[in-house]
């Protein structure tokens, strides 16, 4: 860009260095525009406005040469006396303009007039950092917008950040923030936005400012192209069919107002027998592959905009095809069953021991006034009885009942020491039995 600008500038400046004298001799003046102003008309939008020099001779064609100096260098010509730019303004903005007069098939420039906007006020390192936004188009008409950021390094703990987005003429403040451990806003969700999913390449302008009692919070602006921050929906209706010796995978485009032609896909075919993955790209809505009949495969697909501009969708749920042929399948099943049975038996045995022990210490319905001897004998009885019926569930129930009733000293003791372990053992036991 800069190189190109230089190449264009050189002949222009050469022409200007030679021409003015010649023009003066002929009584032709090229005068700079007047009343050049910069006005912020919306978030990250500046209007450049100027007037033709009233002393400029009217019988020559003039245009204006505009150079944006910062934040991003840009040069262009215009016939108009105004121009609007969308650009981040937190670090200020500066531009210069001049009149260009056409004379004898060359362009002769006037002096430049420069104007600038100061940087937005605020203390160093109080701006948010790592600002990032994603557009979700889960339903056709109301894309949502999620943004996240980090608080600035020097942002006091009482900082309140506010986020605004602008899309064409619409500006909205964030209605729903996520907060960090100091309750500072560090994320935002717009569940509905004015973002039009049919638009291509429209900018989403984000402005985050803030306030604090202890520091001036410097605003930050950032521009996102809606195409590059859209999280694409996954492909739909994936089907697998056999076509002669090939396996044909087909799917439909993701939910989106954009047509089929806008999407590309990745297909991952995972061979469960060999453990190998085959990743392929596709711009059509189907994919063929040759199966090894002794293998089982899982197939998943994800979508993106063509040229991978957006964020890849989630992978679709895996679809399986083929039967893996194992030789000693029956043998393996037998071994598995035996091992599982052993473990279950062991667990039951251990759990019975545990529950028995705890039950001894604590009655099923402990009342603070019971004397200890009564308590033990009553419990022994109940436990034996219960074990013969449903030991595991009883064990679980007991643990639960107990922790909710911890008024006696014995109660608080078990609370400290035992309830967690007991719950844990019994839950494991239940899981393994069920
Ligand atoms: C430029 O601005 C000044 C002061 O605002 C005004 O008096 C003058 O008429 C303007 N010039 C033109 C050409 O509009
Ligand atoms: C433009 O007008 C000036 C006088 O106002 C005259 O000297 C000049 O020759 C004119 N140029 C053209 C191209 O008409
Ligand atoms: C226009 O330019 C050509 C060469 O660039 C020159 O020969 C000619 O004299 C010029 N005419 C006038 C009117 O300046
Ligand atoms: C924004 O609003 C102005 C007038 O209010 C209108 O002329 C313009 O077309 C609108 N632009 C967009 C992109 O909606
Ligand atoms: C933050 O920006 C919004 C939108 O430009 C503005 O209305 C608001 O006054 C600003 N707040 C602070 C604290 O700068
Ligand atoms: C899924 O695909 C099949 C076969 O192409 C088609 O018959 C069916 O209508 C599709 N289902 C949906 C929900 O699009
Ligand atoms: C399919 O595979 C079988 C066995 O490998 C082969 O005989 C047959 O020609 C193949 N058919 C096609 C259409 O490739």
Describe the structure.
The longest helix is centred in the last third of the chain and has 33 residues, at 329-361. The strands form six sheets. Strands 3, 4, 6, 7 and 8 form a five-stranded antiparallel β-sheet that branches. The protein has a five-stranded mixed β-sheet with strand order 13-14-10-9-17, with no helix packed on it. A four-stranded antiparallel β-sheet has the order 12-11-15-16, with no helix packed on it. It has 434 residues and is α+β, with helices and mostly antiparallel strands. The protein folds into five domains: 28-117, Sandwich (Immunoglobulin-like), CATH 2.60.40.10; 129-230, Immunoglobulins (Immunoglobulin-like, Sandwich), CATH 2.60.40.10; 239-321, Immunoglobulin-like (Sandwich); 327-361; 372-433, no CATH class. The chain has helices at 2-25, 329-361, 372-389, 391-403, 409-417, 419-433; strands at residues 34-42, 45-51, 62-70, 74-78, 82-86, 93-103, 106-109, 113-117, 129-136, 144-150, 160-167, 170-173, 177-179, 185-190, 203-211, 220-225, 230-231, 236-243, 246-252, 263-271, 277-282, 286-290, 297-305, 319-321. The structure holds 2-acetamido-2-deoxy-beta-D-glucopyranose (NAG) (7 copies). One 2-acetamido-2-deoxy-beta-D-glucopyranose binds next to loops. One 2-acetamido-2-deoxy-beta-D-glucopyranose (NAG) binds next to loops.
């Amino acid at each position: 860009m800069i190189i190109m600008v230089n190449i264009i500038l050189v002949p222009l400046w050469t022409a200007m260095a030679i021409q003015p004298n010649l023009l003066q001799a002929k009584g032709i003046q090229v005068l700079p525009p007047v009343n050049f102003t910069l006005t912020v008309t919306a978030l990250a939008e500046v209007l450049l406005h100027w007037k033709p020099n009233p002393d400029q001779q009217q019988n020559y064609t003039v245009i204006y040469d505009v150079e944006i100096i910062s934040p991003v260098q840009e040069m262009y010509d215009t016939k108009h006396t105004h121009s609007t730019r969308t650009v981040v303004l937190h670090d200020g903005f500066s531009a210069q303009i001049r009149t260009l007069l056409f004379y004898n098939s060359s362009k002769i420039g006037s002096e430049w007039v420069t104007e600038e906007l100061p940087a937005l006020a605020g203390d160093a390192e109080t701006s948010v950092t790592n600002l990032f936004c994603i557009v979700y188009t889960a339903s056709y008409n109301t894309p949502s917008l999620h943004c996240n950021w980090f608080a600035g390094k020097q942002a006091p703990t009482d900082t309140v950040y506010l986020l605004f987005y602008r899309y064409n003429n619409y500006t909205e403040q964030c209605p729903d923030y996520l907060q960090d451990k100091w309750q500072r806003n560090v994320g935002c969700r717009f569940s509905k936005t004015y973002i039009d999913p049919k638009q291509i390449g429209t900018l989403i302008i984000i402005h985050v400012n803030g306030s604090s009692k202890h520091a001036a919070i410097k605003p930050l602006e950032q521009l996102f192209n809606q195409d590059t921050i859209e999280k694409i929906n996954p492909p739909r209706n994936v089907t697998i069919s056999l076509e002669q010796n090939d396996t044909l995978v087909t799917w439909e485009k993701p939910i989106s107002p954009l047509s089929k032609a806008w999407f590309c896909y990745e297909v991952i075919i995972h061979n469960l027998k060999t453990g190998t993955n085959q990743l392929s790209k596709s711009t059509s809505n189907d994919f063929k592959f040759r199966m090894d009949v002794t293998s089982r495969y899982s197939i998943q697909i994800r979508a993106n905009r063509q040229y991978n501009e957006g964020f890849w969708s989630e992978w679709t749920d895996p679809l399986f095809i083929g039967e893996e042929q194992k030789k000693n399948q029956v043998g393996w099943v037998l071994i598995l069953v035996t091992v599982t049975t052993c473990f279950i038996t062991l667990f039951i045995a251990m759990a019975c021991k545990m529950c028995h022990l705890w039950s001894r210490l604590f009655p099923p319905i402990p009342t603070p006034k019971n004397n200890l001897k009564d308590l033990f004998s009553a419990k022994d009885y109940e436990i034996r009885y219960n074990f013969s019926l449903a030991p595991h569930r009883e064990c679980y129930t007991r643990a639960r009942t107990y922790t909710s009733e911890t008024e006696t000293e014995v109660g608080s003791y078990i609370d400290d020491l035992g309830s967690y372990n007991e719950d844990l053992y019994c839950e494991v036991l239940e899981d393994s039995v069920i």
